[in-house]
Design goal:
The complex is a heterodimer of chains A (175) and B (328). Chain A has helices at 10-19, 38-48, 50-53, 97-105, 122-145, 155-172, and strands at 22-25, 32-33, 58-62, 69-74, 78-82, 84-85, 89-90, 109-111, 115-117. Chain A has 175 residues and is of the alpha/beta class. In chain A, helix 5 packs across helix 6. Chain B is an alpha/beta fold. In chain B, 25% of the residues lie in helices and 19% in strands. The interface between A and B is medium-sized, with 36 and 21 residues.
Chain lengths: 175, 328
């Protein structure tokens, strides 16, 4: 059987695709910061292997709008990481219990359910796992089915899978 | 130019009567080519008929949404003594007339479910644009106004107007049902009204409405209002309601902060009034001012997944940093 780029074994193809992941960065505005830079993203993709970056077209570090967002996956294959305010953060309202739990698990200091501080590298890790790897988890769910632009499962299930992937990545990450 | 209206194969005597009224609105004669048994059902004055040879002797303009038909909004009548031919209620103009016709015009409609008008309404709209082509501009703001039908006096006329509204692309129409012809009517009346509206495939939502309405601008249109001609009034726009009264004279100035009037210009002052004909002309004029609907499907929303923070309280305040505040 003849060999070609298309018939290469999966690890070879995935490695080739991972090299194509473009990381584009827009510098953060005054008062904001990109907790992850390009080298952090490349390092994470290298560590988690070809499967993590397979099919990802680009990762962009962008300005944020008024919405309280960490990251977005734009199907198929574009992951956007938003700039974040410099800690400590003060939210314009009380955070939901699920969000508070998520922040505390990531190592944040939460006061009065509206003020959040990030000691050390916890903010970078939070963006890495709850932002980047969470969206890669969504991407893997989409990409694995082959239906790249269709909604392949209920949103709640999608979120659960992405959370599980992010948690597994956090546990595998060397301290 | 003297034209005439010809009903080609009209079956329903009520539609034939409405065609006679439509022709009388524009002061032209109305004839029938009776090929589908109208005469036996006709009980009023003798029916003026025309045979095929005589019909084809003069130039004909067929009103039918056949392939290749041009828009009635941009068409003109041929020279001579043309016949404006409308066809059977279900089957349209007969093929022999379509083949021989000088021009075939259609009334552009963007409705879903219902894409045809009542034959008399179609004839009235066609005559309005062919006999006295308006010189109005297209709307600048292509926003479809809301429509309020005020006090329709006849259930079939009201149903027919609702059919026209759906055909011209409205999804919702308000009705001030002060004469109780649409809501809460006896079953036979209700059946006739819904049949006239083609309610089995008409997706229009009919909402009982009464002033005050809360719009910034109201345009009252009809034959009995005093104002600029219909085509010179901008009938479209956001926060605009188009009020089509059924011969009700009342003080319209309380409808909205800004009230304008649009008169349906007709060549004769005294004519047999029919609500469906006047309202269909008004709705067609709005469709003309709006222009053709945008072609193609709207872009689909891209599938995205967000990782975000959820707040339990509504965020009615904005976060301002000390640095931003001092900079300000």
């Amino acid at each position: 059987m003849s060999r070609s780029l298309r018939t290469d074994p999966y690890p070879l193809r995935a490695a080739r695709r991972r090299e194509c992941v473009a990381v584009r960065s827009c510098p953060a505005r005054l008062g904001f910061v990109h907790p992850l830079d390009e080298s952090d993203i490349r390092q994470a993709l290298d560590f988690f292997g070809p499967a993590a970056g397979y099919g990802v077209r680009a990762i962009e570090l962008r300005h944020t709008d008024d919405r309280l967002r960490l990251a977005t996956l734009k199907v198929p294959g574009l992951i956007v990481l938003y700039e974040q305010r410099r800690p400590p953060w003060t939210f314009p309202g009380r955070l939901s219990p699920a969000t508070l739990d998520r922040l505390r698990r990531a190592g944040a200091h939460v006061e009065a359910a509206t003020t959040v501080d990030w000691p050390g590298d916890t903010l970078r890790d939070f963006l890495l796992f709850d932002g980047l790897m969470h969206e890669i988890g969504h991407h893997i769910v989409q990409h694995a089915t082959g239906k790249r632009t269709a909604r392949v499962m209920r949103t709640a299930d999608h979120e659960r899978r992405a959370d599980a992937f992010a948690t597994a990545c956090r546990q595998a990450w060397p301290r | 130019m003297t034209a005439r209206l010809v009903g080609d194969g009209v079956e329903n005597p009520a539609n034939a009567r409405a065609l006679l009224d439509a022709a009388a609105m524009f002061a032209i004669p109305c004839l029938f080519r009776d090929s589908r048994g109208l005469a036996p059902r006709w009980t009023a004055e003798p029916l003026v008929t025309v045979d095929t040879a005589e019909l084809k002797r003069a130039p004909m303009v067929a009103v039918d949404n056949a392939p290749g038909a041009t828009s009635v909004f941009t068409s003109t009548l041929p020279a001579g003594h043309p016949s404006i031919v409308v066809g059977n209620e279900r089957r349209g103009v007969r093929p022999d007339v379509l083949r021989e016709a000088t021009a075939c015009v259609e009334i552009p409609m963007s409705g879903r479910g219902v894409n045809t008008l009542n034959v008399a309404s179609a004839a009235a709209v066609a005559m309005y644009y062919l006999l006295q082509p308006p010189r109005g501009r297209r709307a600048r703001a292509r926003r479809r106004p809301d429509v309020l039908l005020v006090g329709p006096g006849d259930h079939v006329e009201a149903g027919s107007v609702l059919r026209s509204a759906a055909a011209f692309g409205w999804r919702t129409v308000g009705i001030d049902d002060r004469d109780k012809v649409w809501f809460g009517t006896p079953r036979p009346m209700r059946t006739e009204a819904r049949a006239a509206a083609r309610s089995h495939r008409n997706p229009l939502r009919v909402v009982p409405t009464a002033p005050p309405l809360g719009f910034a601008r109201a345009v009252v249109a009809g034959t009995h209002v005093d104002g600029l001609p219909l085509h010179r009034v901008d009938l479209t726009g956001q926060y605009t309601v188009l009020v089509i009264p059924d011969r009700h004279d009342e003080n319209w100035h309380g409808l909205a902060p800004r009230v304008e009037f649009a008169r349906v210009d007709l060549p004769v002052a005294d004519f047999p009034y029919r609500y469906r004909l006047v309202a269909s002309i008004v709705l067609a004029e709005v469709a003309r001012q709006l222009g053709p609907p945008a072609t193609g499907r709207p872009p689909r929303k891209r599938l995205t997944y967000d990782s975000a923070f959820a707040l339990t309280d509504p965020a009615d305040v904005d976060l301002v940093l000390l640095g931003e505040l001092s900079g300000y």
